[in-house]
Write a structure and sequence with these properties.
Blueprint lengths: L1 E2 L1 E4 L4 E4 L16 H5 L10 E5 L3 E7 L2 E10 L18 E7 L8 E6 L12 E11 L7 E11 L3 E9 L10 E5 L6 E9 L3 E9 L22 E9 L2 E7 L3 E7 L10 E9 L12
Antiparallel strand pairs: 1-4, 2-3, 4-9, 5-9, 6-10, 7-8, 7-9, 11-18, 12-17, 13-18, 14-15, 16-17
């Protein structure tokens, strides 16, 4: 754990600190005992305090949605939370990092702010996660404090069923891709189940062919060997189409549909079972949920 502030053991909160050095303590206004004991109260309107969590080992590589509950207080008044309004509209700020390396090297990250960028976007499947929380530092007379941060890495999916969807309705005629919209928006679609509801007409080729025999010219007179005649026929069959999911987004997925025998692009009617992680945004209370 690390950050830009310090942990006040007496109050059990994380408080901001400024850039004072020992040289400042020999001059006004830092020449009194009170100034020594409140040396961190040299804050400006742009001051912030950030706290970085320990690295969280999820135990396996997985796509997650972090739910973060932030508790705040005032220095000397732990029952008063900080005010979130237009004066600090991008507070709190959460930076979420994910990596498959235990030291967080090669990490992917996303930074969220309360008003300008509140929506979490997926980092992909990672094993290790870390969260840095930043709040406004407050004023010299009333510094803000972080009193608690709870981080829950959520992997519980939501489900959506799409019934009797005809892929011809999304066939533009220029590509084999069929983009299927979902009713819900997900942080990440993790699974798409496909069930055909209709059949398609396809062709099947049956028959036999000749086996060629090689005999050197001049060794056997003509007419001694007769080859088997070829017999090939093409017929029509009815079967279910083949379909596969080729890509997924937050509010749609793309499939391709083929005839089973000759892999020709086609359409059909399908049921889809979609599973995905729910969305998460910073709310008015400053929590990511």
């Amino acid at each position: 754990m690390s950050g830009t502030g310090f942990f006040d053991v007496g109050q059990q909160v994380y408080l901001p600190k400024d850039t004072l050095t020992w040289a400042n303590l020999g001059s006004s206004p830092y020449g009194s005992w009170d100034s020594y004991t409140t040396w961190y109260k040299n804050l400006t309107s742009s001051s912030t305090v950030a706290f970085t969590s320990a690295i969280i080992d999820f135990g396996r590589s997985a796509v997650v949605v972090p739910n973060i509950t932030l508790s705040t207080a005032k220095d000397g008044n732990l029952t008063e939370s900080i005010t979130l309004d237009s004066s600090n509209e991008n507070i709190p700020q959460f930076q979420i990092e994910g990596s498959d390396n235990s030291d967080m090297s090669s990490a992917t990250s996303v930074t969220l702010t309360r008003t300008s960028n509140p929506d979490f976007t997926s980092l992909g499947a990672k094993r290790y996660y870390r969260v840095t929380t930043t709040i406004d530092a407050g004023s010299n007379t009333s510094p803000n404090a972080i009193s608690g941060i709870n981080i829950d890495l959520n992997t519980t999916t939501e489900e959506e069923i799409i019934e009797s969807f005809n892929t011809a309705t999304v066939d533009d005629g220029s590509t084999t891709a069929r983009v299927i919209p979902t009713n819900n928006t997900f942080t990440d679609i993790t699974f798409v189940g496909i069930t055909p509801r209709t059949e398609v007409s396809d062709t099947v080729v049956t028959g036999t062919g000749t086996v060629s025999l090689y005999v050197a010219s001049g060794y056997v007179n003509t007419g001694y060997f007769v080859g088997d005649a070829s017999s090939v026929s093409t017929g029509s069959i009815t079967s279910v189409p083949l379909a596969r999911c080729v890509s997924k987004s937050t509010n749609n997925f793309t499939i391709q549909v083929y005839l089973p025998n000759n892999a020709t692009d086609t359409n059909g009617t399908f049921d889809f079972l979609v599973k995905g992680l729910p969305t998460a945004s910073i709310n008015d209370e400053g929590n990511l949920e």
